[in-house]
Amino acid sequence: MRDMLEAKTERIRKDIEAMAQFTASPGGGMTRFSFSEEDRKTREYITSQMEAAGLTVRRDAAGNLFGRREGKRRGAPAVMLGSHFDSVKNGGAFDGPAGVVMGLEVARVLHENGIWTNLPLEFAALVEEEGGRFGGGLYGSRAMARLLSRESLDIFRDRDGISMARAMKESGLDPDRVGEAVRPKGSLRAFIELHIEQGPILESEGLDLGFVKTIVGITQREVEIIGRADHAGTTPMDMRCNALLAASEAALFIDRASREAGEGTVGTIGRMEVYPGGSNIVPGKVFFTIDVRSADIERLERVVNTFGSFLKDMEKKHGVTVSVKDKLTVPPVDLCLEILGLFE
Question: Which residues have a Cβ under 8 Å from the Cβ of 209 and sit 6 or more positions away?
Answer without folding.
Answer: 202
